[in-house]
Amino acid sequence: MREEIISLKNEAIAQIMETSSISELENLRIIYSGRNGKLTSLIKKLKEFPKDKRKQVGILINETKNSLNQIISSQKNKLSSSSRKWFDPTIPGIKPKLGNLHLVTKAIREISLIFEKIGFVRVRYPEVEWGYFAFEALNMPKTHPARDEWETFFVDSKLNSKFGQTVLTPHTSSGQVREMLRVKTPPIRMINIAKCYRRQSDVSHTQMFHQFEGLVIDKDISIINLKGTLDYFAKNFFGNKRKTRLRPYDFRFTEPSFEVDISCDICNGKGCKLCKEGWLELGGAGMVHPNVLKAGKIDPKKYSGFAFGWGVERTYMMKSGIKIPDIRFLYSSDLNILKQY
Ligand code: PHE
Questions:
Q1: Are residues 175 and 229 in the same domain?
Q2: Residue at 92 is within a domain
Q3: I need a surface site. Which of 9, 79, 145, 264 has the fewest CB within 10 A?
Q4: What is the pTM assigned to this prediction?
């Protein structure tokens, strides 16, 4: 009997030491010292022993039970403390990486906000567009040479429409007549910001870029309103010191037409090494041509309007302190570059 108890004890200890989970330990406790466990069943056998030996064996069984229980509970303690993660509150935390908005997204938000403050409504028109809205509706008939300026991508589409070929819109001016047809009766104060596409790629051009197009149509709109709006934008976007000037130009969809310049932030319009003449070119503008109003079903005798359309990237790059040596960097997805702006 003594040997049986000792070998049972050894067997139990070996199993307890190999166990790696608290629930397994609890199982072993039940198997060896539980109510119907192996040691307990030995106690029941005690009756078979002569009276003088019963006491000794009984004590041995109880001692074995107790020591097994002790081993099991100390093993349980060990397991539960090693599974607790060590936490040192003095170690500096891991900072999550902070992203930043793309320069173009920031510029678009800023531009929209400035124009919304003076009552312009931001709209969007198709970027895959009918040739009609990009050209014919803007006073550029099918074979007109002025179209060449826009280095257009034509979409090889089987769709036939009275609106002609499908193009990737080369300028946001394609939204002008769409807006007139949507609103029907002026006043119109539209700011259309969208992607544009042209077949060009160099330090200051990308095949895909963004333009923002303003269109205002109402009674008695004159060049004074155009100049006032441009000045308001320039002061809010570039800073109070910057001035704008209109230079005569020609677009088929505006009459008269202008190129808008902004004073150089370094020499303030006097002329310096960087800008040469004191002015930097922003983009086109002009008074809406009567034929364009007619295409939008608006009576040119009753209403007049102005429009302007500039590149978002180009305009942003003229902000003071922004130096981007190659506009293509903006779309290179190189985080080392993009993180700087
Ligand atoms: N759409 C012209 C361009 O892409 C700019 C422009 C817009 C000119 C509105 C006049 C009026 O260059």
A1: yes
A2: no
A3: 145
A4: 0.72
User: Which of ligand 1's atoms lies nearest the C-alpha of 173?
Assistant: 1
254 CB less than 6 Å from ligand 1?
yes
Q: Whose CA is nearest to atom 12 of ligand 1?
A: 284
Atom of ligand 1 nearest to the CA of 306: 11
Closest atom, ligand 1, to C-alpha of 211: 4
pLDDT above 90 (res 304)? yes
Predicted confidence at residue 20, as pLDDT, reads 82
- Of ligand 1's atoms, which has the minimum distance to the CA of residue 215? 9
Secondary structure in 3-state letters for the chain: CHHHHHHHHHHHHHHHHHCCCHHHHHHHHHHHHCCCCHHHHHHHHHHHCCHHHHHHHHHHHHHHHHHHHHHHHHHHHHHHHHCCCCCCCCCCCCCCCCCCCCHHHHHHHHHHHHHHCCCCEEECCCCEEEHHHHCHHHCCCCCCHHHHHHCCEEECCCCCCCCCCEEECCCCCHHHHHHHHHHCCCCEEEEEEEEEECCCCECCECCEEEEEEEEEEECCCCHHHHHHHHHHHHHHHHCCCCCEEEEEEEECCEEEEEEEEEECCCCCCCCCCCCCCCEEEEEEEEEECHHHHHHCCCCCCCCEEEEEEEEHHHHHHCCCCCCCCCHHHHHCCCHHHHCCC
Distance (angstroms) between ligand 1 centre and the Cα of 138 equals 10
- Of 159-168, 171-180, 286-295, which gets the smallest average pLDDT? 159-168
Q: Is 42 in the pocket of ligand 1 (CB under 6 A)?
A: no
Q: Are residues 230 and 331 in the same domain?
A: yes
Give residue-wise pLDDT tens across range 202-252.
988 999 999 999 999 999 999 999 999 999 999 999 999 888 999 999 999
Is the CB of 309 inside a 6 Å radius of any atom of ligand 1?
A: yes
Q: Which domain holds residue 70?
A: 2-83
Whether 310 is in a domain gets the answer yes
Confidence of residue 179 (pLDDT cuts 50, 70, 90): very high
Q: Does 321 or 285 have the greater pLDDT score? A: 285
209 and 265 share one domain: yes
Q: In angstroms, what is the span from residue 308 Cα to ligand 1's centroid?
A: 6
Pocket of ligand 1 contains residue 173 by CB under 6 Å:
yes
Tell me, using a 6 A CB cutoff, whether residue 196 lines ligand 1. no
Q: Are residues 226 and 299 in the same domain?
A: yes
* Domain count for the chain: 2
